[in-house]
Specification:
Layout: H1 2-13, H2 20-42, H3 58-100, H4 108-130, H5 145-151, H6 157-174, H7 180-205, H8 210-235, H9 239-260, H10 273-288, H11 293-303
Helix pairs in contact: 2-8, 2-9, 3-4, 3-7, 3-9, 3-10, 4-6, 4-10, 6-7, 8-9
Length: 308
């Protein structure tokens, strides 16, 4: 019970991942302005104006903030679903390639390993593309050097990687290492990867409408400006503290929406894309160490063929 209480207190006081750094100036401004109004009221200045509470009803501002936060969270959750789908499709496609593609010549296994590494490269290039970063050494070990150099000059690297994977699948079909049903199934998984890339790009390139964001900020500032005039008569010297608490609440909610509406960056509240990509790499490395039963039985039968 004590450990749970300490964790609870630690979560309250934690700064990493919170929006305090981005709103503390607003909080101080609200508290200072509220203290100024209470000081003027103390010297009998006509600053008490409860009627100002009807200028911006609290329920209207609350609904706007709820809509802002819900919209941002929908973007965050849609981004997480897209990356969950990328993980599942990469795993399924890697498994199907490793099990289904027949190995006719000695270099076929190496080509399959290259194709599987390209699946991990698709995830990494998608991550870099969404972050607006150039192709880097993180991809150098996942593909041949010729492809790596080619990728560095592409405008949309994930599309190029998807093209290479699709080209590999078509080559294996032409060599009769895949049948038409297997090719169709794998191409569908590859199409799903490209669809997920497009969904992430839609989130990235469709920000909150500027007019809505500006109007909400204007209402927040106006509300916090008028609040001390409404409450100073009943709260007196507590006006500054209550104004700061209200500022912490409303500006914090707005800052949370700003924090999570683009979930592909490096912030503590963004999606852990680096960890997700590392997980896919490990999954593919583990898969490469496995030998499908069909192939092991085939190798065993060839090994036991009677010699003439």
């Amino acid at each position: 019970m004590k450990a749970k209480t300490l964790r609870w207190l630690g979560a309250i006081l934690q700064l990493k991942g919170s929006v305090m750094k981005s709103i503390y100036r607003h909080i101080l401004w609200c508290g200072a302005f509220g203290f100024l109004i209470s000081l003027l009221y103390h010297f009998d200045k006509p600053v008490s104006q409860p009627i100002l509470g009807s200028v911006i009803p609290s329920i209207v501002l609350g609904l706007l903030l709820v809509f802002r936060t819900n919209t941002a969270y929908e973007r965050f959750w849609e981004g997480r679903k897209c990356w969950g789908s990328i993980v599942n499709n990469v795993r399924n496609l890697a498994r199907q390639i490793w099990v289904s593609v027949e190995e006719i010549s000695p270099e076929d296994k190496e080509n399959k390993i290259t194709a599987l590494n390209l699946l991990a490269a698709f995830a990494v290039t998608t991550k870099l593309h969404l972050r607006g970063e150039a192709v880097n050494r993180e991809l150098e070990d996942l593909m041949p050097s010729t492809k790596y150099r080619k990728l560095k000059i592409m405008n949309n690297p994930p599309i190029e990687v998807a093209f290479w994977i699709g080209d590999y699948l078509q080559q294996q079909y032409n060599r009769n290492c895949l049948n038409s049903y297997q090719l169709t199934s794998m191409q569908e998984l590859l199409n799903n990867l490209v669809d997920n890339l497009g969904a992430c790009e839609r989130i990235l390139k469709t920000p909150m409408p500027l007019a809505y964001a500006i109007h909400l900020k204007q209402l927040l500032i106006l509300y916090c400006f008028l609040l001390p005039f409404q409450i100073v008569e009943s709260l007196g010297w507590w006006t500054g503290l209550i104004s700061a608490l209200v500022g912490f609440t409303v500006f914090g909610i707005e800052a949370i929406g700003l924090e999570i509406e683009n979930p592909f960056g490096y912030d503590a509240n963004d999606l852990p894309l680096d960890a997700i990509c590392e997980t896919m790499k490990r999954n593919i490395d583990d898969l490469i160490t496995l030998t499908p039963n069909a192939r092991s039985h085939q190798d065993s039968s060839i090994h036991h063929l009677p010699s003439n």
